[in-house]
Structures are given as C-alpha cells and as structure tokens.
Design a protein that fits this description.
Radius of gyration: 20 Å
Number of helices: 11
Number of domains: 1
Distance between the termini: 62 Å
CATH superfamily: Spore Coat Polysaccharide Biosynthesis Protein SpsA, Chain A
CATH architecture: Alpha-Beta Complex
Shape: globular
CATH class: Alpha Beta
Helix content: 25-40%
Strand order of the largest sheet: 5-4-1-6-11-8-12-10-9
Largest sheet: 9 strands, mixed
CATH topology: Spore Coat Polysaccharide Biosynthesis Protein SpsA, Chain A
Length: 296
Amino acid sequence: MAKRVTTAVILAAGLGTRMLPATKAVPKEMLPVVDRPLIDYCVDEAVSAGISEIVFVIAEGKEAILEHFRAGARVETALRETGNQALADSLAAIAKKARFHAVYQPRQLGIGHAVACAREFIEGRPFALLFPDDVILRTRSCTAQLVEAYEATGGSVIAVEEVAEADVPQYGIVDPEHEGRLARLRRVVEKPKLEEAPSRLGIVGRYVLSETILEHIDATPPGRNGEVQITDALARQIAAGETVSALRFEGTRYDTGRPLGYIVANVAAALARGDLAGPLRDRLLPLLGGVRACES
C-alpha cells in the first residue's frame, strides 16, 4: 500500500526573467492573479488535495513569500485596530492553511537540485511538487488528481497535456505505453527536437514523486549549465523498473511565467468570480470590438 502524500514542495527560487521588469524587485510568485498572489493559488491546490505540510524552495530576496504566509502581518494588525475584523480574519486564515517551511536554493542548478534542497522534509516519503508559474483552474485540484493516481499506481506521476508542435522543444516530453488518461511511461525526454519527440504530451508543473526520487537525484550527474534535471531522475526511476506514469489531468492550465499567459489567467480567474464576471465582460467587449475595428 502506497504511503499517504501529506507534503508538498513548491519551487519559488527562479529569477522570473520572462516577466522582467515586473519581477526585478517583486518575486514572480507574488504577482497577483486578480487579488491573490500566484503562489496562493498553488498552496490552495495542494491543501485541497489533503496536503498539510508545505515547503517553499526560495532564493535570497524572496522573503515576501514567507511574509504572505506568516501570521500577524502588519496589515492584519492595522485592520484590527481600525475595526475591520472580517478582512483581518481572512488574512489570518492564510497562515493556517498548512504548516509552512522554507529552504534556500543558493544557486540556480536545476529542478532536481532545488528538490534536494528540501531533503530534510521529504526524504523517505512521497510528496507533491508544484510550480507556481502554472495556474490550473478546475473545480477539482490537479494535485488531488495526481495523488489519486499515485495511490492507484504506487509510483511517481507526472501531469501532462498535449502541446503545440512548435512548443515541443520547450518541454519535457513523455513516451506513454498507451493512449489512456493514466499511462505508464517508457521514457521521458527533456526538450527534444520535434522530429525526435516520442509524443506531443508535455510535462507541466505538477508531480507526485515517490520516496525513491532523492536517491535518483543524488545519482544524476549535472547536465547543461551544471543543472540537475528532475526528468533525468525520473528516467533513472524508469530504468530501475519503478513505475512512473503520466496523467492527462482535468483542468485548464495557464503559463503565467509569460506575459500573455499571465494576462489570460487574470481574465479567466476574474470570469470565474460572480462579483467580477459581468462587469469584466462589459469592459472587455468594447475593447475587443475596438481591436476588431482596427484589424478590419
């Protein structure tokens, strides 16, 4: 019987270069989608999957992430002093979502290296791995879907979706044994050329990794730019005969690490809210009409 997944590692040590200059002083994970930071969506997704312990892997200068999840923030105190108890309580609830920890990744040496930085909290146990850049909107948490798949297979599970041919060289690509929603993998390939890709199924920023993954990370030599890739460690799991599967998750994923994806995620999240959907449509329709008029 597979061990329960109760811990998540959230990677937040990246430089956010694709969103500069907005991320020069503000962690990209703290950029808002409507009125919540990106990383808050990630935490909620993990918590709704039964996760009770969350480890942030951060870099120097990203302490704002920790402040967001800390109890007793200055703004919370100020709100109570002015009598706005309801809003203060909503902020206090953020710190109660899970038990939070943080570790530092001193240098950008790959995803495998970042995961290993959290060793003290994950060694010997399965855990979820999440990237805040990917916002996945769905009634049912993508991480919950992965946990369920892990419990069924007993091995690592990767979230995948079909990507455009032009985007294949930007993704880790999987080679599944069959076309089903949950399929065991023959191999994973990091950023292959289109003609060498085994499928069009690209890995997105959600995983549940089995308890042996750190052993394989430790045995994985650094590759390009001295980075240790998680896909190489997964490939070692497959080579060792361990079960590694891909799950075609239910939900819509937005790549908020790029300006267009970030804008679309904001619109999609706002349209999902009853208090914003109608007014936003009223504002967007004239803008879109103007764009069409200019294009015609």
